[in-house]
Amino acid sequence: MIQFDDMREMERRASIHCGDGFLDIGLGVGLFLLGFAMIFGFAPLAVIYLAAAFSIVKAAKRSVTVPRMHHLDFMPDPDAESRSGRIRGVMRASIVVSIALGVCALLMSRIAPARISAALRSDGIVLFGMMLTGLFILIGWGTAVKRMRVYAAIAGSLFVFGYWFDLDVSWYLMIIGAVIGIWGAVVLARFMRDYPKFHNRNGKAYQRTW
């Protein structure tokens, strides 16, 4: 086993570990808030979350994931560096797509000119359906997280359903966000159950060295 003496290295490895459910929860809460903001006109709420999401997830991983890293087997992997770079690239692309979703939602809200919002709302379900399905496929490919394929299937199926039955985009986002957020919470609960923190004699959690 590798001896993890460098906290920065531990945090870096924790940041690309997707088995704790924080990626799912972050996406789910963001999509739910986006739909909620579109219904009630609280666009700044979604924008604030989007700006703070990365810091929130990073802080959560530092307090929950890092103290449990001693359970995970991180043997030297010749492809680790390239895989890490791929994940970072996918995350950057995902941020761009998320910003695009936020901008589209903002333009479809009440604060945008009526002509613009009406034009986007007419085909909004198609736009959001394609972007979300592509986003989940992209994240799934970059992180090798299989449940992202399930999210893509859910987004695609709900997109078809919503298009046929004229489902409002805001409800489409809230439903998908709730499903992903709840799924992520289940993954997080299992992660915390299966990988308890390692404590010293004083009861304080710390990172075990090998």
Keywords, separated by commas or semicolons:
single chain, 210 residues, mainly alpha, elongated, disordered N terminus, disordered C terminus
Structure description:
The chain has one domain. It has helices at 7-15, 22-40, 43-65, 80-108, 114-122, 124-143, 147-164, 169-194. It is mostly helical and 210 residues long. The protein has 8 helices and no strands. Mean pLDDT is 75; it is low at 1-5, 74-78 and 200-210.
> What is the string of helix and strand elements?
HHHHHHHH
Outline the biggest β-sheet: none
Q: Which stretches of 5+ consecutive residues score pLDDT under 50?
A: 1-5, 74-78, 200-210
- Give the tally of β-strands: 0
Residue-averaged pLDDT:
75
Blueprint (SSEs and pairs):
Layout: H1 7-15, H2 22-40, H3 43-65, H4 80-108, H5 114-122, H6 124-143, H7 147-164, H8 169-194
Give a brief outline of the structure.
This protein is mainly α. Helix content is 73%, strand content 0%.
